Amino acid sequence: MLQSLRRAAYRVYAHRLRTQLSDAGLPQHVAMVMDGNRRWARQMGFDDPKIGHRFGAEHLDEVLGWCAEVDIRHVTVFVASVDNMRKRDSDEVDNLMQMIENVVAERLSRPANHWQLHLAGRLEVLPDSTRNALKLAEEVTRERACKFHLNVAIGYDGREEIVNAVRSLLEDEARAGATLDDVGQRLNADHIAARLYTGGQPDPDLVIRTSGERRMSGFLLWQAAYSELYFCDVYWPGFRKIDFLRALRSYSARHRRFGA
């Protein structure tokens, strides 16, 4: 009985939060640092903290559903950095990669899924099976006539992304016969932005980080220059719809200054 009352109260509160949001004041693009999987598993009493990665991977499905409900059409999630791949225990990395293959890539590939996948990061640092699963999912979703776009940042480093974008620009210009002086005279921010992993998509309006950490950890360093930041104390698998709606409410109440 008590549990039923709590669920009813939760639904009422979530509905109240949603009614406080103006569709015109919602972000077009939300980026999320999905942090705290292992700490959540320990908090929940699991003997193996790596179990948190499975719950975290499965939770992404639910969060994407919340985004679709309010017509947020661009989402970027930070799954793992290059440093995560290199420095964490190999068993933990293997477990995380299996969750990416068996949960994220597999579910995105299903015909009923309406998200188009875009990959962001150095795929060469991933295990072959993970890289192949993600590339297959990207290919499967590429031709979908859909309006929802999901960027998965894995094997990602924000500084390397910018360096690679500049390198790509210089290589393109060199093939066209331009000199460095020519490039220097014409170079502007749009030229670099077009060559980032998210090229052609709007920059994130809102960046949410779970787990209580208050730093960007190299995530979308270029794209998030004018993003609103929201730090949430709950761990990613425990990130509830009301936490998501509170983040949107906070965003809609802010006056964006874009650096001014």
Task: Characterise this structure.
The chain has about 260 residues and is of the alpha/beta class. The protein has a domain at about 25-155 and about 205-250: Undecaprenyl pyrophosphate synthetase, CATH 3.40.1180. It has helices at about 1-20, 35-45, 50-70, 80-85, 90-110, 130-140, 160-175, 180-185, 190-195, 240-255; strands spanning about 30-35, 75-80, 115-120, 150-155, 205-210, 230. Strand 3, helix 6 (about 130-140) and strand 4 (about 150-155) form a beta-alpha-beta unit. The mean pLDDT is about 95.
Features:
Undecaprenyl pyrophosphate synthetase, 10 helices, 6-stranded parallel β-sheet, single chain, alpha/beta, 260 residues
Main sheet characteristics: 6 strands, parallel
What is the count of DSSP helices, taking H or I runs of 4+ residues? Answer: 10
CATH architecture label name of the domain at 26-156 and 203-252: 3-Layer(aba) Sandwich
pLDDT < 50 runs, ≥5 residues: none
The secondary-structure element order is: HEHHEHHEHEHHHEEH
**Percent of residues in β-strands:** 5-15%
GO cellular component, one term: plasma membrane
Binding site for substrate: 36-40, 53, 81-83, 88, 209, 215-217
InterPro entries: UPP_synth-like, UPP_synth-like_CS, UPP_synth-like_sf
Subunit structure: Homodimer.
Summed up:
The protein is an alpha/beta fold and about 260 residues long. It is built from 10 helices and 6 strands, in the order H-E-H-H-E-H-H-E-H-E-H-H-H-E-E-H. Catalyzes the condensation of isopentenyl diphosphate (IPP) with allylic pyrophosphates generating different type of terpenoids.
